[in-house]
Structure formats: structure tokens, C-alpha cells
Amino acid sequence: MSTDRNETLELLEWDTSFFGFRIARVKGEALGDMKQMDAWCRENDIACVYYLARSDDSRGAAKAEDNGFHLVDVRMTYQRETGMIIWPEGKLPEIRVFTAADMPALMAMAGSRFQDTRFYHDPQFPREKCDGLYRKWIEASCEGYAQIVLVSTDGGKANGFITCHVDDKTKMGKIGLLAVDEGSTSRHVGTSLVLRALEAFADKGMARVEVVTQGRNIGSQRLYQRCGFLSASCGLHFHKWYRPAGGNRG
Q1: Which residue positions in the chain have pLDDT lower than 50?
Q2: Predicted TM-score (pTM) above 0.70
Q3: Which of 82, 95, 210 is CA-nearest to residue 162?
Q4: CA gap 145, 156 in Å, rounded
Q5: Strand, coil or helix: 154
Q6: Where are the domains of the chain?
Q7: CATH code that applies to domain 79-233
Q8: How far apart are CA 167 and CA 160, in angstroms?
Q9: What is the rounded distance in angstroms from the CA atom of residue 24 to the CA atom of residue 40?
């Protein structure tokens, strides 16, 4: 087997371990020499390659399509400053810091509320693995991967959550995961979580906040726009498969 090092590609060890087949990612914005890339992937038993192209790079997107990559997602990035926050009127849900007792409710939401993401829209990824990915993500976030995890409650039970990451060097905060329970009847849960997160970011000294969502997730985009976020960039997520991984849409 060839080396895991390559000028154009990098092996993603976490993704490979979690999904159970070897996954790589294109470094940067250019695909480079496709013959060399294909040869390296076959030599290293790569099953899937991720490629994030700029939405304004029509040549890059066309090259991807011509060489067996398939578009699986539109990546929307939004940003805003942590300045003035305008809260909606009326009764709002309680927002507080995560506690260990919230974990079962958060795990249940994480396993069912992210079906707009690219993994669910690529039939090669097994559905149960996609569910497990987001359960693992919220679990890791609550165990320290995220610096801040906030939950909303209804009758004392968690009915929404948001995870927050801070970067003291860039002063840029990032929202990781946001979910609201499908059965929640509380109003403004998502809005309250985002606005309270903005306050928490400001308390940590962050000047700006960034969040990434999917082009197909119109509800999420509208939520962030209502909370003062503006579009900052748009990218195109492509996947290329070198061998079947056994997934399905079920």
C-alpha cells in the first residue's frame, strides 16, 4: 500500500474510523492531476473522497463532474458581529447550560434532526451511521469538544440545544450543532438558542460568530437571517466513490 501522504489529498482518520472505510479529502480548492489522484486512491484503498469547491468556480465544478464526483450539498456560511441583540416579544423558553441529565434527550434529537446534511443525501453512507455520527458529535461536544453547550427547556425537559466553539486568537466564535425537538410546542426555541449563544460568545470576547448550514435547509437559513446573520460564502460539496460502501437511503 502507498503512503497516506499526498500533495493533493489527505486521509481523514476520524471519518475512516467512524464509517469503517477509508475516506480522504481534497486539500484546498483545486482538484489537480486526476490521474495521480485516482491512482493514489486505488493504491491506498480509498472508498470516498470529499471535495469542497467554490460556488463561483464553474471550471472546478465541471472538472469534478467530468471525473466522477457527484454534488451532494451546497454549503452556506453565515456570519454576524456579536453586537446588539434584539429579542422577540412574548414568552420565551428558558435557556441554560447543559447538564449530564440532558444527555438522553440531546442524543435522541441529534440522531434524528440533521437529515438535511450531505451524508444523508449520499446513498452510499448507511443511514444508521449517519444517525450515529450526530449522536457522537453531540456527545463529544458535551464532553469538552465544544466550549459552550446550551439547552432550551420545556417543563424542565430539554427540547433544543446549541453547541459553541471559541477561538481566542481570531476572536471568531462558531456554532457547531443546533437542533430543536420535532415535538416541541414552545415558541422561538431556535431563535432563543441562537441569541443566547451570541451573548455567550460576547462574554467570551468573540467579535464575530460564524455558522455553516445546508443550501437545502431553508428553515435554518431563515432562522440565522432573523438573528442578524448575513451570507459570507457559498461552497459546493462533492463526493467521489471508488468502491461501494454498502449504504442505502432507507
Answers
A1: 1, 249-250
A2: yes
A3: 95
A4: 25
A5: strand
A6: 9-68, 79-233
A7: 3.40.630.30
A8: 24
A9: 11
